[in-house]
């Protein structure tokens, strides 16, 4: 059975309910016609020029991203800026774009559940209990065996396949670990209150690192892209299972995305 964009949207909304998104966010179907057929779909972290080229080359009908293709208000839809040019090219090539951002951060099985799982955390819970046991941005869990910070930081680098990670030594053995993919330093107080000794996130600034050290919290900056990219494969697999279960014939592909920030 051929799926339509609206069918994909319904499944994705079930997996990452838009109601979980932060008020400032922009999620859901952001480009495209709801009744358009979808025979091939691509999953990506970002809707970049490279991802669009891959989608056009592979004749994808829809792209599902984590970061919203439209975030701030669009005042002019022209080819005068790289971002709006991508929107025009997507529409011209009949490619729908759906984005699940902070709702996918919060949802069960989303960004932070995947990050906690691949880092080997056990007894994982939500970082804050506002929306129940899991829903809510951030996760916290325990290592099966405590380890030194340098060893754990090395594991994070290896597991996430990163060129490097930065870390701040809070003077504690790694036992109870909090994670927040992307930019999570706004949650440092919640990390402390939850009893974590170590926090894995991205986009750490110098004075934020000082604050973590002062609070006695180990900090590992594994990058924005590095901490979120693992969800792409997981989302593609989960989406494929749902589509098969509902008897939709959709070819799902994963975009190849190079690091945005490189190191010498």
Describe this structure in words.
With 264 residues, this protein is of the alpha/beta class. Helices cover 35% and strands 23% of the residues. The chain is built from ten helices and 13 strands. α2 links the parallel β4 and β5. It is globular. The mean pLDDT is 95.
Query: What's the main sheet like?
Result: 6 strands, mixed
| Low-pLDDT segments | none
Strand order of the largest sheet: 7-8-10-11-12-9
Secondary structural class: alpha/beta
The ordered H/E elements are EHEEEHEHEHHEEHEEHEHEHHE
The chain-level mean pLDDT equals 95
- What does the overall shape look like? globular
The Cα radius of gyration reads: 19 Å
Q: Tell how many strands the DSSP assignment holds.
A: 13
Number of helices: 10
First-residue to last-residue Cα separation:
49 Å
Strand content: 15-25%
In quaternary terms, these chains amount to single chain
Helix content: 25-40%
Topology readout:
Blueprint: E1 3-4, H1 5-15, E2 28-31, E3 37-38, E4 40-44, H2 49-57, E5 62-65, H3 82-92, E6 96-99, H4 102-106, H5 111-118, E7 122-126, E8 139-147, H6 149-159, E9 166-168, E10 174-183, H7 188-193, E11 198-202, H8 206-215, E12 218-221, H9 224-228, H10 230-245, E13 251-254
Parallel strand pairs: 4-5, 4-13, 5-6, 10-11, 11-12
Antiparallel strand pairs: 1-3, 2-6, 7-8, 8-10, 9-12
Question: Which features would summarize this protein structure in a list?
Answer:
alpha/beta, 5-stranded mixed β-sheet, 264 residues, 6-stranded mixed β-sheet, globular, 23% strand
Report a brief summary of the structure.
By secondary structure, the chain is an alpha/beta fold.
């Amino acid at each position: 059975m051929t799926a339509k964009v609206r069918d994909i949207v319904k499944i994705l909304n079930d997996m990452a309910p838009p109601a979980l998104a932060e008020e400032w966010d922009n999620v859901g179907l952001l480009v495209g016609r709801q009744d358009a057929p979808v025979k091939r779909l691509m999953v990506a972290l970002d809707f970049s020029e490279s991802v669009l080229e891959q989608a056009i080359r592979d004749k994808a009908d829809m792209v599902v991203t984590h970061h919203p293709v439209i975030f701030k208000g669009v005042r002019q839809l022209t080819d005068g800026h790289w971002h709006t040019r991508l929107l025009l090219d997507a529409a011209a090539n009949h490619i729908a774009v759906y984005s699940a951002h902070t709702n996918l951060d919060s949802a069960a099985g989303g960004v932070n559940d995947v990050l906690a799982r691949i880092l080997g955390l056990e007894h994982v819970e939500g970082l804050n209990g506002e929306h129940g046991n899991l829903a809510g941005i951030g996760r916290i869990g325990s290592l099966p065996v405590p380890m030194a910070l340098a060893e754990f930081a090395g594991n994070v680098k290896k597991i996430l396949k990163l060129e490097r990670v930065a870390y701040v030594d809070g003077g504690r053995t790694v036992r109870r670990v909090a994670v927040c993919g992307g930019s999570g330093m706004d949650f440092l107080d919640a990390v402390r209150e939850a009893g974590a000794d170590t926090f894995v996130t991205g986009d750490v600034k110098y004075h934020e690192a000082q604050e973590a050290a002062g609070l006695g919290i180990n900090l590992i900056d594994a990058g924005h892209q590095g901490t979120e990219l693992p969800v792409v494969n997981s989302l593609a697999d989960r989406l494929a299972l749902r589509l098969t279960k509902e008897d939709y014939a959709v070819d799902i592909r994963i975009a190849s995305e190079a690091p945005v920030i490189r190191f010498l």
